[in-house]
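Sanity check. The docking grid for 1.7.6 4-methylpyrimidine-2-sulfonamide depends on where the pocket ends up, so I'm generating a full predicted complex first rather than guessing from homology. Inputs follow.
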Amino acid sequence: PESSEVFSWKFLHPLWQSPLTIPGGTRQSPINIQWRDSVYDPFLKPLKISYDPTTCLHIWNNGYSFLVEFDDSTDRSIIDGGPLENQYRLKQFHFHWGAMNDWGSEHTVDCKFYPAELHLVHWNAVLYPTFEEAVMEGNGLAVIGVFLKLGACHEGLQTLVDALPAVKHKDTVIEFDVFDPSCLIPSCPDYWTYAGSLTTPPLTESVTWIIKKQPIEVDENQLEAFRMLLFTSDGEEEKRMVDNFRPLQPLMNRTVRSSFQ
Ligand SMILES: Cc1ccnc(S(N)(=O)=O)n1
Ligand SMILES: [Zn+2]
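Predicted complex below; grid placement will be based on this.
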């Protein structure tokens, strides 16, 4: 083929300038979860979540999303059980959202988009010495995905929303020293799980995804607070931080399991 046919900028993601498809990728994320095709697995255990709110460190606008980062130097904030063979340490959580309420989530359920999606990122500190090494291993990471839907104001999220103006620009950080992220996780224990990847660079195929069936409710003002963040640094031409989600990826040879019938 013509050299120009082999590579074209149109294959690069507008935000991440990285290839939209990973050559040889067989377990990429996000995916559509077709409810009727998911397979109930009676051997899946309930997910155990134990977070220590004092491990919370700061909120950081990294130019893709805003991350709430945690002290992961000990096993004080961990998850265990579910589909996992080891306990995993909480490192950070962040969100993906749209410019409008009709889209914004990364995963979809029966092709339905939610206005936003929360990701709580954990790494396998039992098997790997650092997060950076765990990122490169098939069982290195576990990410809990929680859908956000438009509804009542979420009290727990509001403490986070109130701090967002301080991280409006890329590469700004604000101290945030006590927050319990379990207030953002629905009480219903039901989840889907599948083997996937990170949805932003390095897109490595190292994630056991645990997607909660029940969404949490947030109100319009809280979603608007996400949308007033900027991708751009102070002094640059302002670009609103919206639509920071990756397109759906092919399921390939994967089965999504459910913890519920
Ligand atoms: C820590 C990290 C990096 C990249 N992408 C993700 S994500 N969106 O898959 O949770 N998390
Ligand atoms: Zn994410």
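Relevant for the grid: Residues 119, 121, 143, 198-200 surround 1.7.6 4-methylpyrimidine-2-sulfonamide (ligand 1) (CB under 6 Å).
Also worth noting: The radius of gyration is 18 Å.
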